[in-house]
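Changelog-adjacent note: as of this version, every example in the card shows the full chain rather than a window. The one below runs 379 residues end to end.
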Amino acid sequence: MGCGTMNFEIERADFLKALGHVQSVVEKRNTLPILANVMIAAKEGAVVLTATDMEIALTETLPVPVKEAGATTVPAAPLYEIVRKLPDGSTITISHRGGTEPLSLKAGRFATTLNVLPVEEFPQLAAGTLPVRFELAASLLKGMIDRTRFAISNEETRYYLNGIYFHAAETPDGLRLRAVATDGHRLAQVEEVIPEGAERMPGVIVPRKAVNEVRKLLDEGAVKVSIALSETRIQFRVGGTELTSKLIDGTFPEYERVIPRQNDKVLRVAKKDFAEAVGRVAAISVERMRPVKLSLSRGLLVLSAMSPDLGTASEELDGERVHYEAAPIEIGFQARYITDITDQIEGEVEFLFADSSAPTLVRDAADLSALYVLMPMRV
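Full-length structure tokens:
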């Protein structure tokens, strides 16, 4: 297929959308020139675009009338930029005479050529056998990703924390599909009713890049996501897009051991008022790791922060916005970690404390499908 001629016409909007998907998978800093390329394969009735960084492969299939079938690879970034800058409504003609001949792109009076690399050099990320298969509502997967991915670790040495851990979890309410992420400072856990077919899935760690690419696809109006996986690979199908990723080869820690079960000091606070107060108080410090202190007494929450260079800030919340009836407590958290969690909460924020040094449990008082664990800082 790579040796024959190729010729087809495609609408600019369709081509641009597909190129947007595939070019974001291309590894920007690579040692293999072929990895900077997108493979364009034209066959009867369809054009297939493929990109890979050797860890992830994304394939987009577009129904297009093909005049001549063929395949080649061209640099993804310049092709995307060229198509992006063409006028809306353009019809693009792509042609290639085979071999090492450049690919030709024409639209109206615009014409360009791009150098190619042989299809034979393009690496294939084989999915292998994927025995576990199920469908998930796109809205559910979107919610599971959004409420956990902020807690993915960026420490490459702890590579087994560089993704979201998806697994079938036994709960008092039966089997659930659960997603967990942690960086050692905070933990996020979300669970949903397990879909048919996922009951025997192995626990898998989906790497950050794959999570982010799938999340982008879910913003485009999909209703269902088809998921297939083994112990080493996972594949997501969203419309005409198929993303295959290697899984992180590691053991996710026994996270349930760090989730507090006996915390008995309960704070409920209005989310909007609390989040805005944290933002105002934290503005006094430019240091990322400086904590915001929560000082609690019956019916009163005082948030405060200090900076040796800039000064101090504090704000009181009371009345209907705060419900706290337990013994007084002072506890500190990194402001950004608090904000990352409250961003995921719709209703009242519920904190469950044990003491000023123990892990704190955070939940949405109106939605217990998610929980968060936050490690305090010394204040």
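Structural remarks: The radius of gyration is 25 Å.
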